[in-house]
Specification:
The chain has 266 residues and is α/β, with parallel strands linked by helices. The protein contains 8 helices and 8 strands, in the order βββαβααβαβααβαβα. The radius of gyration is 17 Å and the shape is globular.
Amino acid sequence: MAGPMDGFERRTFTFEGKTREVYRTGSGPAVIVIAEIPGITPKVAEFGRRVADIGCTAVLPRLFGEAGKPASGGYVMQSLAPACISGEFSCFATRKTSPVTVWLRALARQMHTECGGPGVGAVGMCFTGGFALAMMVDEVVMAPVLSQPSLPFAITRAHRRDLGISDDDLTRVKQRCAAEEDLRLLGLRFSHDRLSPPARFQRLREELGDKFIAVELDSSPGNRWGHPRAAHSVLTEHLQDEPGQPSREALDKVLDLFRSRLLAGA
């Protein structure tokens, strides 16, 4: 029986003294897939395979958890607690970029060197959802996706509107959006997801205008799709992988972004 990480090559990457495991599959331009809490679950790995299937190299860095271990309530808490107190993640501060994104940007540059193409894609999910925005500081990141961005935690109104990025980094992202005609940032969330509040997407619209493309899936009570009100993980745990389903259409939009930005002229 195939294991959840079968087909992935395990490597390590070191930058500024910090070494982490990185799992790769496929070939072609790189897409950095930054797993949500609790880690690289089988469904995160499956998303990586979908990325590889279109002709990209899926690159999954392990920031927390155990690669291939299925998600569970206990496992989520086991991974969340140390992440919240780590200096690498800005869970509560507003107008601050998580320090781990510096390492992720270095990984993106290295993968661009190794995999080629016009640039790289980046997908953040939940806890890491906003990291793709912060990675846009580096011009090598050409196809960013924010899936249910949840940091900083939505404690106050200011937190709910915060983008998990410093003022200086946000200015740089806005400069890129103004200068690069084809640059687009894709955002995904379920409509009633309290972990990824609607105010955050509204702020992205205000800051980035039509460069931000929001995909919000109906999870209101009694919605026609049967999405639970607590639906959260668009591309993994709550993906309904059937044609015509909104979450499948969201997945297709993500893959189409990679095709158009990373593969069309490769």
